[in-house]
């Protein structure tokens, strides 16, 4: 187990290294940072001097090593716009995004498992056909359109739910602000969560359904029937457990993807999270913030994947983690 | 009275365009403690016979006619709930490949305890005690340890022993074994068969052994059925049929055994293949491959009738002895 963990951490470090190079390389292609830093009136000589001082004339490798050295110590540069460490800006926005992803994940897990299982067990029922039809539509509509439609119906027309923002999140544990503490907060986060889950949810329903159908067709399920077990036990213990194993792996990757999807959802709902911040940073050519965002999102991606792999090893008895490390 | 009496069993598969008949008017009886073999090539309907007794046909197969009387009850008329009290409890089944029959994510203990609890009111602790006792009966070393293990941690032979132990868990009256050793190593096959025979004899359990291995049938069973294209074409005492097969197909099966040829000599295969269920020829289904076929064989469907030591479905059976087969020109 320990050997596997170490091996997995090395892999994660290698992926982070690749991400950091790509993110850092983007910097050179976003225009001259001096244009953002100084006004038009500054002469070319002064600009050249500033470039030297900032190390912008050094080779790419030198610049990268300097950047990487600081990044390891938690310094991802200073935002031009906020005039404070980019990481601090991101960490301030992180809870909003993570809560949104959490909300969407709860919706996805809560609905995809029962619906996926139901459509597999009763493939010919009208309800199953409706679910499958709607899921195709759900996959086909882009997130921003779903978000706009949700705002139109539930906020503008019906006036049931607020249309934008986070409202007044409650402070917990000092630093963290949450929307899950009271009813008002939940109302704020409901529509954005639905919008964010709108692509993943149908995808997961279909994935679980396909896996479940395959499992129901397996020899061990037929054998379970031959043993005279209750149908419920066959469905929910014998079949479902085997169904969820591959779903866990896909799910882990998708949580990372959802963090990236938040850019669209947060922008439409003016949700004050990392995604919204990222789009603003792009508009302002706030290069350090853009680079820092890419690295933090990459880090979240790698982290979730590593954790999911470890969980998979614990859930699936045929994966022996202690042996895999050897 | 016989324990199991199958009469006129017909199984059909509803395909998109047509319905094919997989089992055609199958009838046989099995007494308490009797062991019967069902042999034939792949696709003859052996496994379907086994599965239809437990009503475990996978869609689109269904029982289209006939009755299956088991201990005074017609199994074809039972509800799902009533059937659950039979499956695994009074009739147990052993599947072909132990690598895929046990659930990979449940421990051996869980898979044994759940079956006991599905049929009897026992605590988990008591169920485990019974499970350990059954594992000991099938000569599993350190049975207590096995309960905590997952199927992938055990060898194929060990897993099939466990499947046999699960079959015996509730002291059934009948065991249906569908090619129980086909997926196993040759060296283990004999051990498993010997074990199965010993346990059936000592517990007075009836056995339906589905196999294509005539050697196994001759060692294990008292009576046998030979199936071809969804029909029984010969049935009788195992010894009688093995020593003096009546039907040209049964003769072909026995002649095809490697023991029947000298080393270096070509095996005497039966020419051609079993017909697809959707294209069973009229008359005797075997006539295109039969070296004794006469023109009437193409039109007249033979019924089972007594000849020699067995019941045979062949209209020419009286003339077979002393006749040399003509060469079959199988297209």
Automatic annotation (TrEMBL), chain A:
<feature type="transmembrane region" description="Helical">
    <location>
        <begin position="243"/>
        <end position="264"/>
    </location>
</feature>
<comment type="similarity">
    <text>Belongs to the binding-protein-dependent transport system permease family.</text>
</comment>
<dbReference type="Pfam" id="PF19300">
    <property type="entry name" value="BPD_transp_1_N"/>
</dbReference>
<feature type="transmembrane region" description="Helical">
    <location>
        <begin position="189"/>
        <end position="208"/>
    </location>
</feature>
<keyword id="KW-1133">Transmembrane helix</keyword>
<keyword id="KW-0813">Transport</keyword>
<keyword id="KW-0812">Transmembrane</keyword>
<feature type="transmembrane region" description="Helical">
    <location>
        <begin position="100"/>
        <end position="118"/>
    </location>
</feature>
<dbReference type="InterPro" id="IPR045621">
    <property type="entry name" value="BPD_transp_1_N"/>
</dbReference>
<feature type="transmembrane region" description="Helical">
    <location>
        <begin position="290"/>
        <end position="315"/>
    </location>
</feature>
<protein>
    <submittedName>
        <fullName>Peptide/nickel transport system permease protein</fullName>
    </submittedName>
</protein>
<dbReference type="Pfam" id="PF00528">
    <property type="entry name" value="BPD_transp_1"/>
</dbReference>
<dbReference type="GO" id="GO:0005886">
    <property type="term" value="C:plasma membrane"/>
</dbReference>
<dbReference type="GO" id="GO:0055085">
    <property type="term" value="P:transmembrane transport"/>
</dbReference>
<dbReference type="InterPro" id="IPR035906">
    <property type="entry name" value="MetI-like_sf"/>
</dbReference>
<feature type="transmembrane region" description="Helical">
    <location>
        <begin position="9"/>
        <end position="27"/>
    </location>
</feature>
<keyword id="KW-0472">Membrane</keyword>
<dbReference type="InterPro" id="IPR000515">
    <property type="entry name" value="MetI-like"/>
</dbReference>
<feature type="domain" description="ABC transmembrane type-1">
    <location>
        <begin position="94"/>
        <end position="312"/>
    </location>
</feature>
<feature type="transmembrane region" description="Helical">
    <location>
        <begin position="130"/>
        <end position="156"/>
    </location>
</feature>
<keyword id="KW-1003">Cell membrane</keyword>
From TrEMBL, chain B:
<keyword id="KW-1003">Cell membrane</keyword>
<keyword id="KW-0472">Membrane</keyword>
<dbReference type="InterPro" id="IPR017871">
    <property type="entry name" value="ABC_transporter-like_CS"/>
</dbReference>
<keyword id="KW-0813">Transport</keyword>
<dbReference type="Pfam" id="PF08352">
    <property type="entry name" value="oligo_HPY"/>
</dbReference>
<dbReference type="GO" id="GO:0005886">
    <property type="term" value="C:plasma membrane"/>
</dbReference>
<dbReference type="InterPro" id="IPR003593">
    <property type="entry name" value="AAA+_ATPase"/>
</dbReference>
<dbReference type="GO" id="GO:0005524">
    <property type="term" value="F:ATP binding"/>
</dbReference>
<protein>
    <submittedName>
        <fullName>Peptide/nickel transport system ATP-binding protein</fullName>
    </submittedName>
</protein>
<dbReference type="GO" id="GO:0016887">
    <property type="term" value="F:ATP hydrolysis activity"/>
</dbReference>
<dbReference type="InterPro" id="IPR027417">
    <property type="entry name" value="P-loop_NTPase"/>
</dbReference>
<feature type="domain" description="ABC transporter">
    <location>
        <begin position="6"/>
        <end position="254"/>
    </location>
</feature>
<dbReference type="InterPro" id="IPR050388">
    <property type="entry name" value="ABC_Ni/Peptide_Import"/>
</dbReference>
<dbReference type="InterPro" id="IPR013563">
    <property type="entry name" value="Oligopep_ABC_C"/>
</dbReference>
<keyword id="KW-0067">ATP-binding</keyword>
<keyword id="KW-0547">Nucleotide-binding</keyword>
<comment type="similarity">
    <text>Belongs to the ABC transporter superfamily.</text>
</comment>
<dbReference type="InterPro" id="IPR003439">
    <property type="entry name" value="ABC_transporter-like_ATP-bd"/>
</dbReference>
<dbReference type="Pfam" id="PF00005">
    <property type="entry name" value="ABC_tran"/>
</dbReference>
<dbReference type="GO" id="GO:0055085">
    <property type="term" value="P:transmembrane transport"/>
</dbReference>
<dbReference type="GO" id="GO:0015833">
    <property type="term" value="P:peptide transport"/>
</dbReference>
